[in-house]
Amino acid sequence: MPPHPSTGRQRPPALRDVAELAGVSIKTVSNVVNEYPHVRDSTREKVREAILQVGYRPQAAAQQLRTGASKMVTLAVPALTFSYFSDLAQEFIDEAQRRGQTVVLHSTSAGREAERTVLEGFNRLVGDGVIFNPLLIEEDVFARMERTTQPTVFIGEHLPEQLPQGSDYVRIDNVAAAFDATAHLLRTGRHRIAFLGAIATRHGLQPHSSGSLRRDGYVAALSEHGPGADAAIVQAVENWHRHDGFSGAQELMARHPEVDGIVCGNDDLAIGVLAQLRRRGHRVPEDVAVIGYDDTPDAPFASPPLSTISPDKHTLAATALDLLTERIQGHDGPPRVLDTPYTLVVRESTTPTSLTTADLEELP
Which domains are present in the chain? Predict the structure, then answer.
């Protein structure tokens, strides 16, 4: 490319360079770049070949000024060090690519202020809208917001009933899922079941969180199908990483050596629990059954393979992108709240290999 006349530096390839090489008008090149349908296939292919040859790349900012949309969306999650969020992020990326969109990943691992920055629209808008999983923002912050600063779809479990205008909410029924996980352990004959995964804070257990919702489902199952809510054993942890599960299980088994089943807040905790039980010489599932949540890629390869709740992450990603796209295109109705499905996946950490699926179905 020739140098820029004012700076002398080589300028990036432009539409006119593609047009000259392909022997078409700049308007035709623009139509191809913006995927307008009324271009002959032979012309479209010629323009695409020219784009490859000159190395032209459309600028997202310029495209957004022309069309009002950059085809970029931001996915803001707490941290990619959690297996669930890294796996979920890939689902969003794959689904967005199928739609011709690009996902910009943003981590709020710096804490509450980082989440507030996302909620307030960043210092500068990134893309057309945001899919946001908050963890730490207080409910009164949402209550004070009349409208989000950009089209927003929330995911996760940390949202109040009243959402600001301009947003929607896609979630999984954590209470029902943990209920099913606990009921599964009860069906396999466990009598002293604990829940490991409530988050400890300076002010007690963290409210309005995945941990509290899953704990509630565990307690409800004990009340309906087991020894009752009074028999609940709740083990708090600092966070949901594997080392938290390892240390939490050590404390739990020291306090309650009679425990024969453990419902874990997520798979990372459960894998840590499995390691602690091996160290203590407990057989899984013969002595203690363990079930996780999230069905992360490591779950089938744990030792033993981990039973878990499997959220339908593809449906969650597709539904969130559907709602966000509608908001970007101008939908301004009241906030919508949609539940997405999950399944109970039974593996060897809760069921001896000699017990078949048919046997499980016959259990009370």
Answer: 15-58 (1.10.260.40), 72-172+312-341 (3.40.50.2300), 175-306+347-362 (3.40.50.2300)
Task: List the structure tokens of 27.
Answer: 């308007």
Alpha helices (runs of H) in the chain, residue ranges in sequence order: 15-22, 26-33, 41-54, 60-67, 83-98, 112-119, 139-144, 174-187, 210-225, 242-255, 267-279, 313-328, 357-362
Residue linked to tokens 């409910």 = 139
Question: pTM of the predicted model, to two decimals?
Answer: 0.76
Rounded to whole angstroms, how far apart are CA atoms 48 and 28?
A: 11
| Residue 197 host element (H or E) | strand 193-201
Which amino acid is present at 138? E
Positive or negative, the Cα torsion across 352, 354, 358, 362? negative
pLDDT by residue (tens digit) across 141-165?
A: 877 788 888 899 999 887 877 899 9
Q: What is the DSSP letter of 32?
A: H
- Give the CB-side neighbour count of residue 107, counting CA atoms within 13 A: 8
